[in-house]
Specification:
Length: 340
């Protein structure tokens, strides 16, 4: 089974090896990376991996627009995508935590009954009070998260989607594919959530604009969860704040973004069952000529950037403010008060 992962990156150097290794462990066979404006060695790492035949690396074709959507439009014309059996579109801070079988994508597909698309629900992983960036697997460090059934005041939560080659794709979206118009009832593709249940019709057809990238989370994660490490350490969040959004121009991260994703109400270590396989695969990648030095240079650049930001009065004030913000976000607090 040929499975291609497509993603956009900017200054994700310290996290690339873990993400690629993890996805190789779960069954991804090919990678298409788009990068732009990197200053931490991200592009050098990807070029080295490309030279070893492990990834495809292209400059993002967008020019001051929506970086991700322009990249996805471009990706559809490349053989590594068009010739794949399945396409997985995700970000480098998102890890597909599969609970079925040995935790591979083929196991997930089988558990869901072999549909043409599987939309897996997000689980936002909290910062958990981690201040310093440490060069250890992200999935090992961050284990706290929100109640799986509710995020802030939302019962419907965002998803990312595995897409089979026979899906009638009009175009790829960041969270889900959009079907071609006029597909007959008999030709409608099988499309499930992470529990193998059919996704609702309004989601399939994007009939409700507010629900085109999410649906109710309750009971949707029996076979898979999408762990989203949007915050990581405080150091890494400051660097992310300074960098801006990888996927959209002029979108910044602020207190609200942090508060909404820093709810430590639950603990989930289920992804840790991958650690032995992950660490072995990371060691294999780092043993390739030149890769360890490039990775260590990216780690050093990340630390230096975080230190420089901490010495900036504005970022220092932001860091102090953020570390005092934990627990349910403001919308969930308001809901709790309303229901009390």
């Amino acid at each position: 089974m040929r499975i291609t992962a497509v993603t956009c990156v900017k200054n994700e150097g310290p996290f690339l090896i873990e993400w690629i290794a993890f996805n190789r462990v779960i069954g991804v066979t090919d990678f298409l990376f788009y990068s732009n404006d990197c200053s931490d060695g991200t592009d050098a790492i990807l070029d080295a991996l490309a030279a070893h035949g492990l990834v495809h690396h292209l400059p993002n074709p967008a020019e001051g627009r929506n970086y991700q959507m322009e990249a996805l439009k471009d990706a559809a014309r490349h053989g590594v995508v068009s010739d794949a059996d399945w396409v997985w579109i995700a970000d480098v801070d998102e890890f597909l935590n599969i609970h079925a079988g040995d935790g591979t994508i083929p196991d997930l597909i089988a558990a869901c009954g072999g549909p043409s698309a599987i939309s897996v629900t997000f689980q936002f992983m909290a910062n958990g009070g981690v201040t310093d960036f440490v060069d250890r697997p992200v999935i090992e460090q961050f284990t706290l998260t929100h109640d799986p059934d509710i995020w802030n005041d939302e019962l419907a939560q965002e998803v990312k989607t595995l897409i089979r080659a026979d899906f009638p794709v009009q175009y790829y979206g960041a969270h889900r594919p959009f079907m071609k118009k006029g597909v007959k009832k008999a030709g409608r593709p099988g499309w499930t959530d992470g529990s193998g249940r059919d996704v609702e019709w309004k989601f399939r057809t994007a009939a409700n604009k507010r629900r085109i990238r999410k649906f109710p989370a309750k009971g949707a994660r029996d076979f898979a969860t999408l762990n989203h490490y949007a915050l990581r350490s405080l150091d890494s969040y400051l660097v992310k704040n300074d960098r801006g959004d990888v996927n959209r121009e002029n979108r910044m991260f602020d207190d609200s973004y942090w508060r909404e994703r820093n709810d430590p109400a639950w603990e989930d270590r289920s992804i840790h069952r991958y650690l032995p396989r992950l660490e072995a695969e990371m060691a294999r990648l780092l043993a390739l000529p030149g890769l360890r030095a490039l990775h260590e240079a990216a780690v050093a650049a990340h630390r230096d950037k975080a230190a420089a930001l901490r010495s900036d009065p504005d970022f220092a004030a932001l860091a102090e403010r953020l570390m005092g913000l934990s627990g349910p976000g403001p919308k969930e607090r308001a809901l709790m008060e309303l229901l009390a």
